[in-house]
Amino acid sequence: MALFPEDTLKLESEARKAGLALDGPYPALLVQGDDELGALTGVHEQLFQANVNVYASSGVADGRGSFG
After folding, report:
1. What is the pLDDT of residue 7?
2. Chain-wide mean pLDDT for the chain?
3. In this structure, what are the phi and psi dihedrals at residue 61, rounded to the nearest 5 degrees?
4. Nearest to 40 by CA among 27, 23, 56, 57
5. Which of 7, 31, 37, 65 has its CA 20 to 30 A from that of 58?
6. 29-61, pLDDT tens digit by residue?
7. C-alpha–C-alpha distance, residues 67 and 33, integer Å
């Protein structure tokens, strides 16, 4: 599982307290925009053209017309 926290130092501190081993950091990209069919297709196409290898991708809609 990969976590991308807003506060990395807090995650590291809490993980140490809990005795959890962390691996990383890993790069991440957050894309937001208008929710429409195939919305992430254009993003993936641009990343492909830039020779960026996408290992995993996930999208969610907020129910108000936006995605992330």
Report:
1. 92
2. 86
3. -105, 145
4. 57
5. 7
6. 888 888 788 888 888 999 999 999 988 888 787
7. 6
* Structure-token pair, residue 63: 């129910």
The structure's pTM equals 0.58
DSSP 64: S
Helix (H) or strand (E) holding 10: helix 8-18
Q: How far apart are CA 1 and CA 63, in angstroms?
A: 26
Tokens 């991440």 sit on residue: 28
Residues near 38 by beta carbon (within 8 Å), at least 6 away in sequence:
none
CB within 8 Å of 51: residues ≥ 6 apart: none
At residue 35, the 3 state secondary structure works out as: coil
Please tell me whether the peptide bond between 25 and the residue prior to it is cis, using omega within 30 degrees of 0: yes
